[in-house]
Amino acid sequence: MTGDLSWVPPEVDTTVPNPARVYDYWLDGDHNFQVDRELGEKILNIMPGVRDAARLNRAFLRRAALFMAESGIRQFLDIGSGIPTVGNLHEIVQGVDPDSRVVYVDRESVAVAHSQLLLSGNKNCAAIQADLRDVNEIVNHERTSELLDFSQPVGVFMLLLLHFVPDSWNPGAIVSRYRERLAPGSFLAISHVAADSNSPKLDEAVEAYKSTQNLPQPRTHEEIVRFFDGFELVEPGVVGCAMWNPQGAGDMSDDPEINALPYAGVGRKP
User: Which residue of 11, 70, 235, 260 has the smallest Cβ count within 10 Å?
Assistant: First the structure.
């Protein structure tokens, strides 16, 4: 990002890289700073396929959102939504039904500021700033209450989020608290970096994140499946991101390691 930075929220330190802005850089967005681009390039030098993995995660978002919309879901909660880029959740689901309602949640000020700007004039969408752990604050937020009815099914997204949640926070318990608030028929979509993807440079890439104060914690297939406790997994279950009901060559990578680098799955609350 170049030029006038007067829009940047005052609490944002533009000298420290941020995972959301690095991800934006990999998706060819322009809401990132020099430090983010430098870290993005450093990780790309370690694992050149990471940019492709970011694209595959975005493609999974589209497929999971369409699946939920086609299953009758008309209200959505996207936690850790990141910086808006091409193919946002609201664009996908409102393409199915313009009355679909979406609440985006992120703790990163830049992500929320840009989401609010993008959503200006869209009465069925909101962006709020909150931490994943603040379940009550998110569910009971004024804007959430205006748009989402938790007595009816909701589609919840936690994409490339939970691997930034350390075990000390007990991420499984956090997910279960959201599950308890959801009506039967609700869906949960998760994508998460795989610890058992056989990517030889993964540990080195994770180490590079130390400068962001958000160190990723890849997890195994078994650990990620446990996040869906209390949900019925939608076929084909938790699989490599590209293998979750691909619809064409664009949903896959030529590199099998990248296809499996993030795991992804969708569960339905019975």
Answer: 11
